[in-house]
Amino acid sequence: MHESSAASLAPTLAQLAALALDPNITRAAERTGTSQPTLSRALRAWEDDLGFAIVARRGRSIELTEEGRILAAAAAESVERMDRALQRIRGTRTANSSPSGSCVRSARPWPAS
């Protein structure tokens, strides 16, 4: 089995989340602004990198594997959390009328050892 970090999946989160909503490669590709062949190649590359199948291919249709469902659910949750964070940031920036928001500095963010 291959070792892969969550960071290596970062660009794929929206695509995995789209597959969680609708396990149809063409519609998932459309939903994320990419083409079906590009998403299909990306799926195969991710599977090679991870060392396990994300989808089971059945002719022209696919079905998420158990591993794929776990990853897709986590991806959907991550995308949703990022959307909420961006909404919060945008709301704060609008309220502050500051292009960069605000920053709070601490001399020591953790207890001394």
TrEMBL record:
<feature type="compositionally biased region" description="Polar residues">
    <location>
        <begin position="93"/>
        <end position="103"/>
    </location>
</feature>
<comment type="similarity">
    <text>Belongs to the LysR transcriptional regulatory family.</text>
</comment>
<keyword id="KW-0238">DNA-binding</keyword>
<keyword id="KW-0805">Transcription regulation</keyword>
<dbReference type="InterPro" id="IPR000847">
    <property type="entry name" value="LysR_HTH_N"/>
</dbReference>
<feature type="domain" description="HTH lysR-type">
    <location>
        <begin position="24"/>
        <end position="65"/>
    </location>
</feature>
<keyword id="KW-0804">Transcription</keyword>
<protein>
    <recommendedName>
        <fullName>HTH lysR-type domain-containing protein</fullName>
    </recommendedName>
</protein>
<feature type="region of interest" description="Disordered">
    <location>
        <begin position="88"/>
        <end position="113"/>
    </location>
</feature>
<dbReference type="InterPro" id="IPR036388">
    <property type="entry name" value="WH-like_DNA-bd_sf"/>
</dbReference>
<dbReference type="InterPro" id="IPR036390">
    <property type="entry name" value="WH_DNA-bd_sf"/>
</dbReference>
<dbReference type="Pfam" id="PF00126">
    <property type="entry name" value="HTH_1"/>
</dbReference>
